[in-house]
Amino acid sequence: MVLTPRTREDGFQGHSVTLGSNPRSASLISSSKGDTIAHLTDVVSLEQPESDGRATIFSDKAGMVKAARMLLSSVTKVLVLADRIVIKQIIASRNKVLTTLEQLEKVSSFQEFVQIFSQFGNEMVEFAHLTGDRQNDLKDEKKKARMAAARAVLEKCTMMLLTASKTCLRHPDCDSARINKDGVFQRMRLALEQVIEIVTEARPSGEGDILPVSIYMGIREYKQFMGIRECKVRGSIAAPQQHMGIRECKVRGSIAAPQQFMGIRECKNQLEGLREGLCLLSKESLTALLEVILEHTEDFTDSAYTSHEHRERILGLSRQARLELEQLIAVWMQAQNPKAAEATEEMELAILKTCQCMNELKKELHNAAAELTADLLKYHADHIVLKALKVSGGEGSLEALAKYTCELSEQKEQLVETCRLLRHISGTEPLEITCIHAEDTFQVIGPQIISAAQTLALHPSSKIAKENLDVFCEAWESQLNDMSILLREIIDLFEGRRGEKRTYLSLPRPGKLSANLKTIKPVKLDSEEQTAIAKVGLELRLLTSDLDSESEKWEDQEHEIARQGQGMSSMAYSMYLFTRGEGLLKTTQDLFHQAEVFAEEGFKLFSSLQAFSAQLGDDEKAIFTAETEKLEALCQQLQITARMPVQGKNSTFLKVDSSIQNTKSILTVVVYILPLCNKLIKKYKCEQSSLGSPQSWRETPLQTPVHEDGLSGKNGNGFGVKSLEHHMANLTFLESK
Predict the structure, then answer these.
(1) Would you say residue 168 has pLDDT above 80?
(2) Within 13 Å, how many C-alpha atoms sit on residue 13's CB side?
(3) Range with the lowest mean pLDDT among 192-196, 285-289, 402-406?
(4) Residue 253, Ramachandran bin (φ over 0: left; ψ between -120 and 50: alpha; else beta)
(5) Structure confidence at residue 704 as a pLDDT band (50, 70, 90)
């Protein structure tokens, strides 16, 4: 069976014709051939004599082989068809998202925006689930990294799109608000297109997937260039095509720019091959490859952020590398004599010295980039510039804003250049892709923060403009945190601790309850589990945003119900950060402890709501009580889950997933209750005011609720799209900001 390769999205539809477009028929064929094999290999049939005429595996070997081949063919067809169906689902989901995105971009009223964004939120959650499953199924690590980068952009841009669009609708004549919004829409479209390129294996403009490679790759190629073997024919010097290490590339016109570390590794591999014998090789090609490597060390030496000591050592090692290569070529040319039986000791020494020089260059480049990145991250850890931008924007000080805008632009350039240097020392293509993603993120978000700050400075009393600036600053801070994780992974790879997954420790806290428990080993979540956790985390993040928006609409921000809602939002946000490997919750035990505290806070909110419901009329009280009872049941379920002891990887992951799912369900109920509660407070205030005897709607003293351990709560739905519906269902807060 010949499979036509998938190349582009527009040609994808036709490939299903080659295989047959009916998965049911392929499944029936697989089942039929499976039954045939089962019949031929049936144990009862084998025990009976062959004289009765029954076919067995011994009497019908040809039939067995044919059935096995047909089974393999039909199963392959089923798998390919299933793969095509999944890809078509992703393409269809992307098309729906794009259509709704275009509608969102053209809205001119809050009411229209509310309606369309609710639909958009549902479609984005569906797209996130489909692409998350696809990312987990990918075998190519480079594609996995690209998919992860694109999905990260979509996750962050979903929140940016909400606040940027609201700001633009609130201030339609503000150019900076429009620029800010347009940037988000453009970035989302590019990320959606990248996802489709990955799943359909398409290439933009028909070109190959050209990835800027690092110096590390160049050095490896340089070594492989020397990977010469014993040849039967000697006497001439020519470069076999298979040993040509210089790749043609359209990036710079002719010779590709090797990633610094990759180039060093290639170079060393080639050099090591000299020990095994002589071969036909061009010294000009080897010299050219070294020059390409050294040319790209200029990214380090020309950088204003590279220290003087590192710059001098890199330049010195570059000069030494040229001298060592000249010496090696001279010895090599002498060894090309047809009478030479093997490489001389002089040749061996020259190879060792050249490889040692490349190792030292590699180490120096790594130290220069790693130290620069660590210092830069430490310097910007307090986010002083971002805080100053928020203050100057809130005060409407354009002069101060201009000053801090320049400082942020300078910080952005530092981070972008640092990401480029990290790319050179990344060592693997997935890490290199992550470096490129970080570089692009800083390049894009920097100007967007500035435009958001300018909008706030022009409208300092606008709550939505302030919220918009906060969202973009949060994305900047998150990317800085991702960059520190990236640096740690690069250092681990360089020091030989490669491929280690993030570890979630499930260790009991010290105390009397843990005295009799065995020591629990660290539990590692595999890629599928991490993807699943990330999906739920995105839904949790959307819910916390909804809850924050609802809390801000309360006139009395010190009202106990509002404060408790804000506290629960903060706790849930820390749990969301855990799903991204960020924040203060470092281990699963930290997460479970946070979940238990979250449940206790939910019980406190339940008590406040019970006291509040006592002042309601019968009809309103019935509706209100039904929702508060859901809250109590869900909090009890979360408390039981958080306190349940577990051991082992699978049990720990299930508990993590269940804790976050329960938290999400609780937030969904709270997001529904808070606006209802706020509405009733306003209603009764108006009624009491009109009667001339205002009644205080401040909270009454809390009562401790009695919980039944046996009460079990309901699980939330799988997608958490209710949060967006609740968020969009209330329009008044948009108009009030």
Answers:
(1) yes
(2) 3
(3) 285-289
(4) left
(5) very low
Between the alpha carbon of residue 707 and those of residues 262, 382, 413, 549, 710, the distances in Å are 61, 43, 56, 30, 9
For residue 500, give the amino acid letter.
Answer: E
- pLDDT of 682 above 90: no
| pLDDT computed for residue 717 by the predictor | 33
pTM for this entry: 0.62
Q: Do 223 and 355 form a contact (C-beta atoms < 8 A)? A: yes
Residue 542 near residue 535 (C-beta atoms within 8 A): no
Q: Among the CATH numbers 3.40.50.150, 1.20.120.230, 3.30.70.660, 3.40.30.10, which is that of 525-736?
A: 1.20.120.230
Q: Could you give the angle at the alpha carbon of 55 between the alpha carbons of 52 and 61, nearest 5°? A: 140
pLDDT at 384: 93
Pairwise CA distance, residues 157 & 477, whole Å: 15
Dihedral angle computed from the Cα positions of residues 603, 607, 612 and 618, in that order, rounded to the nearest 10 degrees: 90
According to DSSP, the β-strands at 523-524 and 503-504 are: antiparallel
Q: What are the residue ranges of CATH 1.20.120.230 in the chain?
A: 12-206, 525-736
Residue for token pair 């916390």: 544
Domain 12-206, second-level architecture: Up-down Bundle (1.20)
| Chain mean pLDDT for the chain | 74
User: 574 phi and psi, to 5 degrees?
Assistant: -65, -30
d(CA 424, CA 365): 8
Percent residues over pLDDT 70 in the chain: 67
> Where does residue 442 rank: exposed (0-12), middle (13-18), buried (19+ CB within 10 A)?
buried
* b/e per residue 678-708 (b: at least 16 CB within 10 A): bebbeebeeeeeeeeeeeebebeebeeeeee
Which candidate, 651, 273, 202, 734, places its Cα nearest to that of 463? 734
Q: Which range has the worst mean pLDDT, 56-70, 473-487, 530-544, 638-652?
A: 56-70
Asked if residue 695 has pLDDT above 80, the reply is no
